[in-house]
């Protein structure tokens, strides 16, 4: 619903004052707030001034547009003559007019909801401004007719009163600006206090980060030194146990042989723990090397079969290697790939009581995935990342049968990252697990056989996204 409220001519300087007064009265009757009343009056006065100065006047039409949910006040200033032409075709006077209009439109645009300028060949500019009514405000035709009649009978103040009114509005606006400035200063002080608190917190966090970094370095140094110090006596214990079991110093009784085998087993377990700790310490310190060379997956699987056959002691579990369909060659560190796969297969054999453990490989363009799948006990979803934490083990009856250090899987993941790949798992309790090693087919490093010393920061950056990329490529 559109309703014309008032139509005012702009033919003299006094008419500009009249249009401003009417704009304020109408906005008041349409329940705009005081600040919006001032904005509307100021916008209409600015456009009316331009129409009188450059187009010999015009008309101001005030309408109510009910098409929007809350209604809208529409004010259209139709100039008497002259159109807005391109600057290069205008005289200096017309250029001034154009610049003045553009400035007025820019200022009005800040005060109103919308401002549109239309120019025609045979008529002057038509400038339409809109101001949305306050929320939940709407009017019926009868109410709008009543507003129109009130305007027709309401007197207009003289110029002096209008100046007084404008001064009063200016004072109120200044008071509001001063209040907002005080609020802004208060907020600024609050933000400064908060900023000081944040800076102090950052300083504390940075200090704690340095302490943690130092503690981590000390831990790595301790693990490295301790591992080195333990290796020599453990090697001696294992060598002496072997000499005794081989009867180099005479026969042993049954009980003596049993005790010596206990000693050898304990020393062997400790050696595995020490070797794992040493490898982890080297990786964290960035002192482990990558020995690059080309190797075929067929030869790799062939060597693993012989190496892992002694571990497949359960006749109810079959160890299966699925060779690739065609010859597949990889450029990486073969020994580290073997170390990762050996750990994954050994774990799968431990926790599979019936069925099979399958080792396979899939390749796509520049990536390759080694997979070790089993039909074992499986892993709960909440433990899928927990198993890659150092010294972490899941409570399970089979776990108690096969005691470990909790270093195998963390070491596998870090070795995989060192090779610019990743180690991950998917599993479901009671249905087995699938561990995978993702690698680039060609390690982007030095020439074959040359050791590469990689800091841990670099290797983690290079491997990021490898697993996701392989999944996307293979679908």
Q: Overview of this structure, please?
A:
The chain is an alpha+beta fold. 53% of the residues lie in helices and 19% in strands. The protein has 12 helices and 14 strands. The strands form 4 sheets. It has a 5-stranded antiparallel beta sheet. A 5-stranded mixed beta sheet has the order 8-10-11-13-12, sandwiched between helices. Strands 6-14 form a two-stranded antiparallel sheet. Helix 1 runs antiparallel to helix 2 and helix 5 runs antiparallel to helix 6. The longest helix has 87 residues. It is elongated.
Keywords:
alpha+beta; 475 residues; single chain; 14 strands; five-stranded mixed β-sheet; five-stranded antiparallel β-sheet
What fraction of the residues are assigned to beta strands by DSSP? Answer: 15-25%
Number of strands: 14
Pairing-aware structural class of the strands and helices?
alpha+beta
Alpha carbon gyration radius: 43 Å
| Unreliable spans | 82-88, 447-469
- The helix/strand order is EHHEEHEEHHHEEHEEHEEHHEEEHH
Number of helices: 12
User: In this structure, how is the largest beta sheet organized?
Assistant: 5 strands, antiparallel
Give the helix proportion (percent range).
40-55%
Strand order of the largest sheet: 1-2-3-5-4
Could you tell me the mean pLDDT? 80
Broad shape: elongated
Distance between the termini: 58 Å
């Amino acid at each position: 619903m559109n309703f014309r409220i008032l139509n005012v001519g702009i033919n003299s300087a006094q008419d500009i004052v009249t249009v401003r007064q009417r704009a304020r009265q109408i906005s008041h009757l349409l329940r705009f707030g005081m600040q919006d009343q001032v904005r509307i009056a100021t916008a209409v006065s600015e456009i009316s001034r331009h129409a009188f100065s450059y187009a010999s006047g015009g008309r101001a039409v005030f309408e109510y547009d009910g098409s929007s949910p809350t209604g809208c006040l529409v004010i259209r200033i139709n100039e008497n003559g002259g159109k807005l032409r391109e600057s290069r075709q205008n005289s200096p006077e017309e250029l001034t007019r154009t610049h003045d209009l553009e400035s007025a439109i820019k200022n009005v645009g800040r005060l109103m909801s919308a401002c549109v300028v239309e120019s025609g060949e045979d008529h002057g500019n038509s400038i339409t401004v809109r101001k949305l009514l306050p929320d939940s405000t709407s009017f019926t035709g009868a109410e709008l007719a009543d507003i129109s009649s009130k305007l027709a009978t309401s007197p207009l103040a003289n110029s002096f009163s209008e100046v007084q009114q404008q001064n009063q509005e200016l004072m109120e606006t200044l008071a509001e600006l001063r209040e907002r400035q005080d609020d802004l200063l208060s907020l600024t002080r609050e933000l400064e206090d908060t900023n000081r608190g944040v800076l102090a917190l950052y300083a504390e966090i940075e200090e704690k980060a340095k302490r943690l970094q130092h503690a981590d370095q000390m831990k790595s140094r301790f693990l490295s030194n301790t591992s080195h110090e333990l290796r020599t006596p453990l090697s001696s214990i294992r060598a002496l146990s072997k000499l005794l079991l081989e009867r180099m110093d005479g026969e042993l009784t049954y009980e003596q042989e049993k005790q010596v085998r206990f000693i050898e087993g304990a020393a062997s377990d400790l050696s595995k723990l020490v070797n794992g700790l040493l490898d982890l310490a080297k990786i964290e310190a960035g002192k482990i090397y990558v020995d690059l060379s080309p190797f075929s997956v067929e030869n790799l699987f062939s060597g693993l079969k012989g190496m892992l056959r002694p571990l497949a002691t359960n006749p109810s579990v079959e160890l299966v290697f699925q060779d690739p369909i065609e010859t597949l060659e990889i450029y990486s560190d073969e020994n580290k790939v073997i170390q990762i796969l050996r750990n994954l297969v050994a774990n799968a054999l431990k926790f599979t009581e019936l069925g099979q453990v399958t080792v396979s490989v899939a390749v796509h363009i520049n990536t390759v995935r080694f997979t070790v799948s089993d039909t074992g006990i499986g892993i709960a979803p909440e433990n899928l990342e927990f198993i890659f934490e150092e010294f972490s083990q899941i409570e399970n009856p089979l776990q108690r049968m096969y005691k470990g250090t909790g270093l195998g899987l963390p070491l596998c993941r870090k070795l995989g990252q060192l090779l610019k790949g990743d180690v991950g798992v998917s599993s479901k309790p009671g249905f087995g697990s699938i561990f995978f090693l993702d690698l680039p087919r060609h390690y982007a490093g030095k020439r074959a056989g040359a050791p590469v010393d990689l800091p841990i920061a670099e290797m983690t950056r290079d491997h990021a996204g490898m697993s996701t990329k392989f999944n996307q490529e293979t679908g």
